[in-house]
C-alpha cells in the first residue's frame, strides 16, 4: 500500500468516526440504509455507511473512485468543520492566499497556467462547459471574458474567472473563494478542489470543440 492509499484509508476512518445522522442533517445529504449521496463538481458520488468507500455514478453503474484528490476532498468537506451549523456563504470573494500569512502560501501559477493555455481561444467552449457543470454566469468582473459561480458541493461554490489571451497578454485563470470557505474545508484541500474543478472544466470543454 503506497502513501496515497494509506491516506485514503485514514480518510475513511475519519469519516466513520462521525455520527452519520448528524452529517445527513448538516449537509442535507440524500441517503438510504447503505449509502450517503452527494454531488461534487457535477458528478454524483455515494459513500458506504459501512466502510466509508466512495464510488461515482457512470450511467446506471457505480464505479469505485480511485482519484485521490476527489476522495480526500469529499472526506474533508464532510469532516472538516466542528461547527454544528455551518456559516452561510457570504458572496464576498477572495484569492486563496488571503487565508494564510503572507508568503506562506505556495504558488499555484504554473499549475493554473497549464489550464489557461488549454482554454486559450475557446471562450465559448469553456462557457458551455461551465454551464454543463451547473455554473451560473455572473456579471463580468475585472474585464474577465468569463465569470462563473461554480457549485462544487451543495451549498458551496467557488468563483471561476477566465481572461483569454491575445498578442499582448497571456490567457489567465483566477479562482476566488468565499471568505468563510475555511469553515467548510482545510486550506490544503482548496488545492485539491481547484485541480478537480479545472480538470472537469477541461474535460467538458473538449465536448464542445
Automatic annotation (TrEMBL):
UniProt xrefs under Pfam families: DUF3786
Domain of life: Bacteria
Domain DUF3786: residue ranges: 23-197
InterPro entries: DUF3786
Protein name as it appears in the record: DUF3786 domain-containing protein
Organism: Blautia difficilis
Amino acid at each position: 500500500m503506497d502513501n496515497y492509499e494509506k491516506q485514503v484509508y485514514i480518510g475513511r476512518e475519519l469519516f466513520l468516526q462521525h455520527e452519520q445522522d448528524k452529517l445527513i442533517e448538516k449537509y442535507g445529504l440524500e441517503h438510504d440504509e447503505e449509502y450517503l449521496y452527494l454531488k461534487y463538481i457535477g458528478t454524483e458520488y455515494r459513500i458506504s455507511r459501512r466502510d466509508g468507500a466512495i464510488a461515482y455514478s457512470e450511467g446506471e453503474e457505480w464505479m469505485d473512485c480511485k482519484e485521490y484528490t476527489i476522495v480526500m476532498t469529499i472526506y474533508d468537506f464532510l469532516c472538516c468543520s466542528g461547527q454544528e451549523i455551518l456559516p452561510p456563504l457570504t458572496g464576498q470573494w477572495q484569492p486563496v492566499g488571503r487565508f494564510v500569512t503572507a508568503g506562506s502560501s505556495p504558488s499555484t501559477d504554473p499549475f493554473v497556467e497549464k489550464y489557461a493555455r488549454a482554454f486559450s481561444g475557446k471562450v465559448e467552449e469553456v462557457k458551455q462547459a461551465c454551464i454543463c457543470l451547473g455554473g451560473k454566469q455572473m456579471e463580468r468582473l475585472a474585464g474577465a471574458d468569463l465569470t462563473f459561480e461554480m457549485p462544487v458541493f451543495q451549498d458551496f461554490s467557488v468563483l471561476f474567472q477566465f481572461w483569454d489571451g491575445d498578442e499582448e497578454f497571456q490567457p489567465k485563470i483566477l479562482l476566488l473563494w468565499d471568505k468563510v470557505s475555511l469553515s467548510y474545508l482545510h486550506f490544503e484541500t482548496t488545492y485539491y478542489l481547484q485541480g478537480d474543478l479545472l480538470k472537469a472544466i477541461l474535460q467538458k470543454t473538449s465536448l464542445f470543440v
